[in-house]
Structure formats: C-alpha cells, structure tokens
Specification:
Elements (H helix, E strand, L loop, with lengths): L2 H24 L12 H8 L3 H13 L3 E4 L3 E4 L12 H7 L4 E12 L1 H7 L5 E11 L2 E11 L7 H4 L6 H7 L6 E10 L2 H7 L6 E10 L5 E9 L17
Helix pairs in contact: 1-3, 2-3
Organism: Actinacidiphila oryziradicis
Keywords: DNA-binding, Transcription, Transcription regulation
GO molecular function: DNA binding; DNA-binding transcription factor activity
Length: 244
C-alpha cells in the first residue's frame, strides 16, 4: 500500500467515525451537554488509532456538533431544536435549558445619523443599550441594541431595564416585533470587545445584525451581537420546489 492509499484509508476511517457519531448526536441518543467517550474508548470501539479519532472529533467540532475542552474531553453542543431569537436571547436560551446571566454595561441617549439614514428612520434620536451575557463561568455574547427614543423609552438611561429584559420593555412600550431581517458574518473581536468579554483580542466570534419592525412598520430595535461560536450556531431549513 503506497502513501496515497494509506492517507485515503485514514480519511475513510475518520469519515466513518464522524458519520456514525453525527448520526447518534442528531438522533438524540447523545444529548446536549453529554460527554463523549474518551479517545481510547472510541479508538477501541471503531478499531482505529487515537489519531484517527482526533481527526473525526475535529470534523464534528468544525461542524458545530461538539466542543472539545483541553484536558476535559468532548461534549455535545447540538440538540436539534431551533432557537427563536424573537423571544430575546435570555428566553431563547432558557428554552434550550441554558441559563444565562445578563449584565447591562450602559444605557445612553445616542444620536446616530448614519444608522438612522441606513435604516431610513424618521429620527436619529436613539437609546443605546450595551450588555454582556454569561453562561456558566464565561461570557458568551456582547450586544449593542439601538431602540427609538420615544415615550417611556426616553427614560431608560435613568430607569434602567425592568427585570433585565429589553424585549419586555419594548413590548410594554407598545413595540411588538412582527418582522425584520438578520445578517450573519464572522469577525475577530477588537481590543475593547476582548476586554469586555474576557477574551483575547483577535479571537473569532459570530457577528449578527438584526433589525425588527412592528406590523405597521414602526422601528423596534437594531441589535449588533457578538456571539461565541462555541455556544451559538446558525441552522437553516429550506425546501426546493420545482417549477413546471
């Protein structure tokens, strides 16, 4: 067997392992948060080397199905349930069994001509809310939300968020999200963001920008979020329809 055949054999083996474990995870046989067997156990189960197991686990990690923690092992991330961010992150994560704590960094009146022009808002007078969110012992997101400076929302810099939920405050002000758009990208965090999140500058985070509107097209919120990809992932469902 030449070198090419050896590499091909290893590739096929790790793909077989990754496919088998992915099937178990997606079927629910392995629940979110459950620890996978160790490398030695997996190598024995599949009759391969530990190096082949590592390659398979790296593939599952890249796919967002597991996370591997140095010295602790690999744990399931995927639970098969969509997360509805329309509820607000706190409720959406809680619905998945993930308890989080939110810390408000600041609430300020902000005049943003550029954002107002981009979103075609009637007024550039906005309220900016900055928050970080933690799960377990680490921070997993940094969020900046702009809401209209109207009615009771004008008082947010003084009164703060009642109960910590911006979604509830918006609803109480008569602003119910009906539709909107969201964009997803990824980027390295800068020095200030790294300091706020307790991470290293340049670490890669998911970046979402979501703008929401009421049923009568009144502006509700524009939120720019940095999300730790170890705790968040994007899942799209689609169907293909053929035209006659």
């Amino acid at each position: 067997m030449d070198g090419h055949d050896v590499r091909e054999n290893v590739r096929l083996k790790h793909e077989r392992i990754a496919t088998s474990l992915e099937r178990e995870i997606r079927s629910g046989r392995m629940a979110r948060g459950e620890q996978l067997p160790g490398e030695v156990s997996l190598a024995r189960r599949f009759g391969v080397s530990r190096n082949t197991v590592r390659i398979a686990l790296a593939e599952l990690n890249e796919a967002g199905l597991i996370t591997t923690r140095t010295g602790k092992g690999s744990f399931v991330l995927f639970d098969g349930r969509p997360m509805n961010s329309r509820l607000g992150w706190a409720h959406a994560l809680a619905a998945q069994g993930v308890q989080t704590q939110v810390r408000v960094l600041g609430i300020t009146a902000a005049r943003d001509e550029e954002l107002a022009a981009r979103l075609e808002l009637d007024s550039p007078e906005l309220i900016l809310i900055e928050r970080v969110r933690g799960a377990a012992a680490e921070l997993v997101s940094y969020e900046r939300s702009w809401v209209p400076a109207v009615g009771a929302l004008r008082e947010l810099p003084r009164t703060g968020l009642a109960g910590g939920s911006l979604t509830e405050v918006l609803n109480q002000a008569g602003l119910w999200m009906d539709h909107g758009e969201q964009r997803l990208s990824g980027r390295p965090i800068d020095a200030r963001e790294a300091e706020l999140l307790g991470r290293g500058a340049g670490e890669w985070f998911l970046n979402t920008q979501r703008t929401s509107w009421t049923a009568d097209d009144s502006f509700v919120e524009h939120v720019d979020s940095l999300l730790d990809p170890a705790h968040f992932q994007l899942s799209l469902t689609f169907s293909e329809q053929q035209n006659d």
